[in-house]
Amino acid sequence: MTSTRMSRRAFAGAALAGTAALAATVALPARRAAASAVPLPPLDHTALQAAIDDLEHPPSTAAQLRVGGTAGCWRGTSGVADIGTRRPVTPRDKVRIGSITKVFVATVVLQLVAEGRVDLDTPVRRILPELLPARFAAVTVAHLLNHTSGLPDHVGIPEPKTPEEVLRHRFDHWTPQEWMATATQGPLKFAPGTRQEYRGINYVLAALIVDQVTGRPYGQAIAARILRPLDLVRTVVPGNDPRVHGRHVHGYLAMADGSLRDITVYDQSSARGEGDMISTTSDLDRMLAALFSGELLPPELLLMMFTLPPGDVRMLDGSPARYSTGLQRATVNGVVLWGKTGETYGYKNAAFSTRDQRRRFVLAYHPTTARNGEESQMIAHVADLLTRAPSTEGQGSRIV
Questions:
Q1: pTM, full prediction
Q2: Is the pLDDT of residue 200 over 70?
Q3: Neighbours of 366 (CB within 10 A)
Q4: What b/e string do you get for 89-120 counting C-beta neighbours within 10 Å, with b at 16 or more?
């Protein structure tokens, strides 16, 4: 990669006290860093298997878990990939990964920054003049990547309230321009860079920036820059294809009468760039390991992925910001994890690691409920088992 051309303002905002402390930790010799780290429990294979065998909390059809890192490895599966054939799920089965897509998109944008083809401080309107009104001129590329853009809520889109309505709308198709138009009708919700609100539309725009800068669809850029170099042969950017090809786990949705309907085939056009990719637990584990090891980004840009906005930037509910550039931060039993969750109907995922990669985990499971807030129970249970040393018992925190 060529020398990095970073926006001074964007990087300065990311490099305040918290980042300085992180940078100092990164620079420590490996032995010293390990000695100061929160202790991790040994892997309890029986408890981990029991966690993914519990397909009632939430109601699910299958689950698979892959644990990696220097503190131990384990993998397990539970349930069936297809309720019709009763074929057991395997670690090679593809799943829809939802918002974990954002990790891939953010990585490619930062690669373009490293090559001098994108500046984080550039107003988005300068790259995509037809998509954002003039009143959004202050929104920069950096604001998209860490969810501090302040873009307005969507207007005029279907909002299914029942599983039956989800099925009726699953083949709705949107062009990126049509989808963007639904989120640009009102004023900015806050001045860019002053608050944080997790919004998929930020990454729809980020993917369009990749399209514009590279001259090809963002999926081709991801394939050339990440998938092929890392040999992620089961990871796919599907484009306009609503199907999942090859061996995969089906997603199901429970109807009002209790029956399960297959929701696997689903038009993902409204999630382009922010939640449309397909992968496997092994491919996602390889992606995390390569990213955290510095295989994909130069150190100063990789550091941005482990840097939250300044302390005075809060979520809309007043809680501390928890999203960095492409990742989210979660502290469970005193252990800091970085990664991403993702979901779409019938699919729920989490891919997280400690910064030093002592412990990574990728969890994929298949709730049959329609996003009622209980779908994260399995993630919380697994994260607790993987981080709860005796001295930290009772200090758990959920990943959301």
A1: 0.90
A2: yes
A3: 30
A4: bebebbbbbbbbbbbbbbbbbbbbbbeeebbb
Region 131-141 average pLDDT: 96
pLDDT digits (tens, 9 = 90+) for 313-340: 999 999 999 999 999 999 999 999 999 9
Per residue, the 3-state secondary structure of the chain, as one string, reads: CCCCCCCHHHHHHHCCHHHHHHHHHHHCCHHHHHHHCCCCCCCCHHHHHHHHHCCECCEEEEEEEEEECCCCCEEEEEEEEECCCCEECCCCCEEECHHHHHHHHHHHHHHHHHCCCCCCCCEHHHHCCCCCCHHHCCCEHHHHHCCCCCCCCCCCCCCCCCHHHHHHHCCCCCCHHHHHHCCCCCCCCCCCCCEECCCCHHHHHHHHHHHHHHCCCHHHHHHHHHHCCCCCCCCECCCCCCCCCCCECCCEEECCCCCEEECCCCCCHHHCCCCCCEECHHHHHHHHHHHHCCCCCCHHHHHHCCCCCCCCCEECCCCECCECCCCEEEEECCEEEEEEEEEECCEEEEEEECCCCCCEEEEEEEECCCCCCCCCHHHHHHHHHHHCCHHHCCCCCCCC
How many CA within 13 A on the CB side of residue 326?
25
Q: Which of 279, 289, 292 is CA-nearest to residue 364?
A: 279
Closest CA to 117 of 221, 273, 241, 234: 221
User: How far is it, in rounded angstroms, from Cα 279 to Cα 222?
Assistant: 13
Q: Which pLDDT value is given to residue 391?
A: 59
CA distance 384 to 366: 20
Q: Does residue 4 register a pLDDT over 80?
A: no
